[in-house]
Design goal:
two-stranded antiparallel ribbon, about 400 residues, alpha/beta, Nucleotidyltransferase, domain 5, 14 helices, disordered N terminus
Length: about 400
């Protein structure tokens, strides 16, 4: 017999041992029973909610915990936890309570700062680029910004997507061709006119400039960055005379007014000066007439400089051509430089950054795109035999 005072018990060695009551759901109200039946019969919605409702109904029907665990293919401890939570919270225990994950590392203020930085041109923040890439923006936020934020590239991309900051091409706007716009008579007259409450006045003063170059960049969706559509070369054209060291992976150059044999000879002398030990140097050039004059050939033979000319109409085979791709992407595209000296300073600033970060993934990616563009234009790859017509 079970001794008095114990709900259940056994005798072991002449002693009474208490046994805990089985885990069962409390008595259900009529409304709770109807809701549980409705959930299990429909079988729609959250599968977690359906499974917990089945556990509660099975327990209310008198089934034991092991039997319910075999029915729903779950662990017995999980079944007990569901029953205990239902006895405490009622129907609210059926809804899954998802955890919030690890604590947030980027605050809302830092997120707003990231968006403002992405909408700002890199040149205004002291970086030698005309547009951000995801990698460059993450590096700037981590190292160079006044308010440093450590963030990964994927999380940065998600934040920009949430704030509808997309990568898009710049647009142009037309400037006035009216001569009165230059002497400021008509703009002044318009500027001092009273405006209605919804009126907006914009004023922007610009110096004479080189033609703006279209590009790409991060901007709010539907509101791309604007550049003036001025295609007049007011200061003429300049030539960038570049030199690329294949072994050192270094790029340098100067801006000249024109192409000439004297400029080519000066460039060769600067290349020769980089190797004072007198070792032979091989220079790859295209077939421009300014590259193959008699004075240049004589000087090259005297100073152990061998001139290797690319085949005719194949200047694209020169390895330096791929280096001009990043130069156009990060300095020329999306630019609006006021004059040539400013553009020259931007070029030199970028070249210093590029030589210090020659293996930067963005630089390598721009080089690959430039090589792919050249191959698509020529329909073949340099060094690959030409296909013959059938």
């Amino acid at each position: 017999d079970t001794p008095s005072g114990l709900s259940a018990g056994r005798r072991r060695g002449g002693q009474a041992v208490a046994v805990a009551d089985p885990v069962r759901v409390r008595r259900l109200s009529d409304q709770e029973g109807q809701q549980l039946l409705r959930i299990t019969r429909r079988g729609t919605g959250s599968p977690i909610r359906l499974r917990r409702a089945m556990v509660v109904l099975a327990s209310a029907g008198g089934n034991t915990v092991p039997a319910i665990a075999r029915l729903v293919q779950a662990d017995e401890d999980t079944i007990r936890q569901v029953i205990h939570r239902f006895n405490e919270m009622g129907m609210a225990s059926l809804d899954p309570q998802w955890a919030g994950g690890r604590p947030r590392q980027i605050s809302l203020d830092e997120e707003q700062f990231i968006v403002e930085t992405a909408n700002t041109r890199p040149e205004k923040l002291g970086r030698p680029f005309t547009r951000w890439s995801i990698r460059k923006l993450a590096d700037h936020l981590r190292v160079h910004s006044a308010r440093r934020v450590r963030i990964g590239r994927e999380r940065l991309r998600q934040i920009l997507h949430q704030h509808r900051i997309t990568f898009q091409r710049t647009k142009t706007w037309k400037e006035s061709t009216d001569p009165a716009a230059r002497c400021q008579t008509r703009p002044d007259r318009v500027r001092h006119q009273p405006l209605p409450a919804a009126g907006v006045r914009l004023r922007r003063v610009r110096a004479p400039r080189d033609p703006p170059q279209a590009g790409t960049g991060w901007a709010p969706a539907g509101h791309p960055h604007r550049l003036p559509a001025n295609y007049h070369k007011l200061h003429g054209v300049r030539q960038f005379h570049g030199c690329y060291s294949v072994g050192d992976d270094q790029l340098w150059g100067v801006v000249r007014r024109r192409k000439s044999a004297a400029n080519t000879r000066a460039a060769l002398k600067s290349i020769r000066a980089t190797r004072p030990d007198g070792a032979p140097i091989y220079v790859i050039l295209d077939n421009l007439s300014a590259h193959k004059g008699r004075k240049i050939r004589t000087w090259a033979a005297r100073n152990k400089v061998e001139l290797c000319f690319t085949p005719t109409y194949a200047s694209w085979a020169n390895p330096i051509e791929a280096q001009f791709g990043p130069l156009r992407t990060f300095v020329i595209a999306g630019s609006d430089h006021p004059n040539h000296p400013v553009l020259t300073r931007k070029l030199q600033t970028y070249l210093r950054w590029r030589n210090a970060n020659a293996r930067h993934p963005d630089v390598l990616a721009a080089q690959r795109r430039e090589r792919a563009r050249i191959r698509s234009e020529r329909q073949r790859r340099w060094g690959q035999p030409a296909t013959r017509a059938a």
